[in-house]
Amino acid sequence: MTTGDRATFYKMTGSGNDFVMLDGRAHRLGEWPAERIVATCNRRLGVGADGLVLLTPLGIGEVRFDFFNSDGSRASMCGNAALCSTRLAARLGMAPTGEVRLRTDAGLVRGRCLPGPDRAEINLEPFDLPVAVPGIAFGPGERQARFAVVGVPHLVVLVDDVDAVPLESRGRELRFHPALGAAGANANFISAPRSPGAPWRIRTYERGVEGETLACGTGTVAAALVVAELTGQPLPIDFVSRAGLELGVRAAIRGGTAEDVWLAGQGRLVFTGTFPD
User: Fold this and answer.
1) Do 144 and 245 fall within a single domain?
2) Catalytic residue among 41, 84, 113, 216
3) Could you tell me the pTM of the whole model?
4) What is the β-pairing status of strands 119-124 and 99-104?
5) Which domain holds residue 37?
6) 8 Å CB contact between 267 and 83
C-alpha cells in the first residue's frame, strides 16, 4: 500500500492499550479537531480507543508521529502507540525494512518489528532516573513512590498488591497531586511477581483518558527503572499488563541517566474499518 484512503482507519492494540490509527497521506492533522477525536474514541458512540495516532511519512523509514488522548488533548509520546505505529508503518509501506524512525514531540523513537505477526520494540530517548517526590503521603498498602519523565510524566507507586488498589479514586487523586506540578502525571501502581521468575504487575491511571488503561508503555519503562532501584533486580525486567500481556524493558544505567532504553511489546492490528461519508 503506497497511498492512503480518506475513509480508512486501523484499530490497533498494544497489550490492551488501544488506538485508532490514521495514514497521514490521506488524513490531515487540521481535519482532526479535539471534538472529532473525542467522538471517534468514544467507546459507545464511536470506534472506541484510548487515543488516536496520525502517521505521516517524512521519507523512507521516517514517519511523523502525532498522538492524541481520548479526551482530545495532545501528548508528546505513548509507548504502546509507538509499538503499534512500528507495525503499521511496515504494513503501509512507510518502513519497508520493518525499521522506522518515529519523530515524536518527545524526540526520536526508533522502532523495529520483531518475529511474529504483532511484536515490536522501540528505542526511547535517554531520560533522568526516577526520583522521590516530597509531599506525597502514602495510603494503605503503598510503600514507595518515584517520579520520572519518559516522554510524559509518570508517578510510580510500589504497593503490596495492585489488585487491591482502588485505582479510579486513588489513581485520580495522585494524577492531580499538587506535588507533581500543574500538568500532573500518569499514576502507575506496581507490585511484585506472584511467584519467582514471573513478571511484575502494573496498573495505570492515565491522564488524558482519565481512567484506567489496560497497559501503559512509557509507564512500564518508568516502573522498570523504579524496580531496579528499589529492589536491586537487574534489567531487563518484564511486566504483565492489566490485560494479561507482557512488556519487557531493558536499559543501561549510567550515572543518573537511563540510556539505550528499549521497550518490547505488542502492536496488533485488531481490524480495519471505514468512516462513513
Assistant:
1) yes
2) 216
3) 0.95
4) unpaired
5) 8-117+266-274
6) yes
Which secondary structure element, helix H or strand E, spans residue 222, and what is its range?
helix 217-231
Whether residues 203 and 230 fall in one domain: yes
C-alpha to C-alpha distance for 29 and 27, rounded to whole angstroms? 7
43 is a domain residue:
yes
The residue from 41, 78, 84, 113 that is catalytic is 78
Distance CA 64, CA 82 (A): 11
Residues 107, 15, single domain; the answer is: yes
Catalytic (active site) residue 78: yes
In-domain check, residue 16 = yes
Residue with cell 523509514: 61
- Written as one letter, the residue type at 143 is R
Q: Are 96 and 234 spatial neighbours (Cβ–Cβ below 8 Å)?
A: no
Question: Is 84 annotated in the active site?
Answer: no
**pLDDT tens sequence for the chain (277 residues):** 345 677 899 999 999 999 999 999 999 999 999 999 999 999 999 999 999 999 999 999 999 999 999 999 999 999 999 999 999 999 999 999 999 999 999 999 999 999 988 999 999 999 999 999 999 999 999 999 999 999 999 999 999 999 999 999 999 999 999 999 999 999 999 999 999 999 999 999 999 999 999 999 999 999 999 999 999 999 999 999 999 999 999 999 999 999 999 999 999 999 999 998 7
